[in-house]
TrEMBL record:
It is a peripheral membrane protein. The keyword 4Fe-4S does not apply. GO terms for biological process: positive regulation of translation. Its main location: membrane. The lineage of its organism: Bacteria, Bacillati, Bacillota, Negativicutes, Selenomonadales. It is found in: Cell membrane. NCBIfam families: lepA (TIGR01393), small_GTP (TIGR00231). It comes from Methylomusa anaerophila. Its EC number is 3.6.5.n1. The keyword Mitochondrion does not apply. Residues 4-186 form the Tr-type G domain. InterPro entries: EF-4, EFG_III/V, EFG_V-like, EFTu-like_2, G_TR_CS, LepA_C_sf, LepA_CTD, LepA_IV. Belongs to the GTP-binding elongation factor family. LepA subfamily. CDD domains: EF4_II (cd03699), EF4_III (cd16260), LepA (cd01890), lepA_C (cd03709). This is Elongation factor 4.
Length: 598
């Protein structure tokens, strides 16, 4: 197809502003799916995604549209993930497009991720089409939202399209504007092949299916290709497009969006952001913007039943086939035994992986509290990346420590500015900026340690602003901090999986709170259990879990056997998420106690 009839675009929006619903309407209108095939939100494929109502992986679909001018166009819609964990994937999806629909909720107005996404789109020089959605809502105020867009983003909002993805108002207008305003892709079929990988998934028969946007050259079955970042070579077996089911085609040319399969066994060979070129006649340089993504959040995953260790490894390997950003390596904990240290892009990514392991692979896991990566500069000049608090060298060996910082943007109604400031201060935030979006809403900017964000910043932000605040953050680098390791001893024995890294000034208080919290969480056992919090060799807090006074079965003595059995069953049930640490039974909540302290 000639490129003048191709349009590649994506939809960007804050969570819940209606991106998926709008995509469905566009599919429906262009007849990409018959009514019978139409399922709600077809672009969100994974079950978990659907349940949580969030978009995790970018997906793509090709629409055919005959415009008012009588010409037929091929529109490629690339769906983008809406969560802060997946910014890099958003950025790669945007790089595959020439234009973006910016969807803003007519009742809510601009939120933190609206801004983050629009800045990404502007960085990629995309033509932005403003869409104000949900105009059917009684509380919709499109004029106010237009004003906000002009004031805050500086885009001309006079031409914004007013839509309701719910009722279908404005859908035809969007399609016309896509055709008339989004530039068609430039690109030469006779130049060497350059195709951007913006997503991939693993198919057990065909191997990895890489989702690509061809920038120049052509690709067809039989083409020998090379991945420019990894230098791996393959022979293409199939190429095709998304209708949205995968449909084979003879070739993909410049400007086209589709998939390639080449018997690739490992998703790591098709990294998002990498450039595919022709192995026999390679392009001189890859497309710009590729970077290797590194996990930001780590935690330990241990099977409750140590016999499940191999199954856990299997399950992690299977998940990794589809998710190149999930990292794991074997780890041994004195307290928890054999498990894995896993790296994730962020907290949502971590939750999703844990939930899939338990749900799809039927594993019962103990997870340790999440932590960030610390850069430890030792007195002997060595620099370590520490992904597990228990591995922090001793104070004597450490010269200084750096931790990751983020720039956080919070949007809230005026009334909550005080609450946000107080919370951010408490979380070691440095105030950077405050700006009025209109007379009622404010945007605050802070620099904060990432570790505070992954603890409970977002939850507390939501609760202290009655759910009105929206948050977005981006990593800005590492900064030096006064950090120390806080150890927990049960029965006089340090429990490695309970160690945390905290700021020196908060260490005393945290230690006391943690010991108190653990006292509540650890059930009474047949003997007394001292709980101590220590920094280095110095114990800073002590609590005691008293011994159980009575045998629980005593009251059934001589009594009804079935009642006795029931009681034992109940105890067993309670043990499900317990781990025997030395001679103390520790429940799952204990390992997360640090997250629930304030
Ligand atoms: P993520 O996938 O989490 O990024 O959210 P999203 O932006 O895709 O939002 P989604 O399409 O899931 O819509 C969020 C909610 O708003 C759903 O309950 C939709 O039914 C509803 N919604 C979407 N568009 C409209 C609209 O035009 N009017 C009304 N009243 N509700 C809408």
């Amino acid at each position: 197809m000639d490129t003048a009839h191709i349009r590649n675009f994506c939809i960007i929006a804050h969570i819940d502003h209606g991106k998926s619903t709008l995509a469905d309407r566009l599919l429906e209108y262009t007849g990409a799916l018959s009514a019978r095939e139409m399922e709600d939100q077809v672009l969100d494929q994974m079950e978990l995604e659907r349940e949580r109502g969030i978009t995790i992986k970018a997906q793509a679909v090709r629409l055919e549209y005959t415009a008012n001018n009588g010409e037929k166009y091929m529109l490629n819609l690339i769906d983008t993930p809406g969560h802060v964990d997946f910014t890099y994937e958003v950025s790669r999806s945007l790089a595959a497009c020439e234009g973006a629909l910016l969807v803003v909720d007519a009742a809510q107005g601009i939120e933190a991720q609206t801004l983050a996404n629009v800045y990404l789109a502007l960085e990629h020089n995309l033509e932005i089409i403003l869409v104000i959605n949900k105009i059917d809502l009684p509380s919709a105020d499109p004029e106010k939202v237009k004003h906000e867009i002009e004031e805050v983003i500086g885009l001309d909002a006079s031409e914004a399209i007013l839509t309701s993805a719910k009722t279908g108002v404005g859908i035809k207008e969007i399609l016309e504007v896509i055709v008339s305003q989004i530039p068609f892709p430039a690109g030469n079929a006779n130049e060497p092949l350059q195709a951007l990988i913006f997503d991939s998934h693993f198919d057990s028969y065909k191997g990895v299916i890489a989702y690509v946007r061809v920038v120049s050259g052509r690709i067809a079955p039989g083409t020998r290709i090379k991945m420019m970042a990894t230098d791996k070579k393959f022979e293409v077996t199939e190429v095709g497009v998304f209708r949205p089911y995968l449909a084979n085609v003879a070739e993909l040319g410049p400007g086209e969006v589709g998939f390639i399969a080449a018997s690739i066994k490992n998703v790591k060979d098709t990294r998002v952001g990498d450039t595919v070129t022709n192995a026999d006649c390679p392009a001189e340089a890859p497309l710009p913007g590729y970077r290797k993504i590194n996990p930001m959040v780590y935690c330990g995953l241990y099977p409750v039943d140590s016999a499940d260790y191999e199954s856990l490894r299997d399950a992690l390997e299977k998940l990794q086939l589809n998710d190149a950003s999930l990292l794991f390596e074997p780890e041994t904990s004195v307290a928890l035994g054999f498990g894995f240290r896993c790296g994730f892009l962020g907290l949502l990514h971590m939750d999703v992986v844990q939930e899939r392991l338990e749900r799809e692979y039927n594993l019962t896991l103990i997870t340790t509290a999440p932590n960030v990566i610390y850069k430890v500069f030792k007195t002997d000049g060595e620099v370590l990346d520490i992904d597990n608090p228990s591995k922090l060298p001793t104070t004597q060996e450490i010269d200084h420590i750096k931790e990751p910082y983020v720039k956080a943007t919070v949007i809230v109604p005026n009334d909550f500015v005080g609450a946000v400031m107080e919370l951010s201060q408490e979380k070691r935030g440095e105030f950077k900026d405050m700006k009025y979006l209109d007379t009622t809403r404010v945007m605050l900017t802070y620099h904060l340690p990432l570790s505070e964000i992954i603890y409970d910043y977002f939850d507390r932000l939501k609760s202290s602003t009655r759910g009105y605040a929206s948050l977005d953050y981006e990593l800005i680098g590492y900064q030096q901090s006064e950090l120390v390791k806080l150890d927990i001893l049960l029965n006089g024995e340090p429990v490695d999986a309970l160690s945390v890294i905290v700021h020196r000034e908060r260490a005393q208080q945290r230690g006391r709170q943690l010991a108190e919290k653990l006292k509540e969480i650890i059930p009474r056992q047949m003997f007394e259990i001292p709980i101590q919090a220590a920094i280095g060799n110095k114990v800073i807090a002590r609590e005691t879990v008293r011994a159980m006074r009575k045998d629980v079965l005593a009251k059934c003595y001589g009594g009804d056997i079935s009642r006795k059995r029931k009681l034992l069953e109940k105890q067993k049930e309670g043990k499900k998420r317990m781990k025997q640490v030395g001679n103390v039974e520790v429940p799952q909540e204990a390992f997360m106690a640090i997250l629930k302290m304030d």
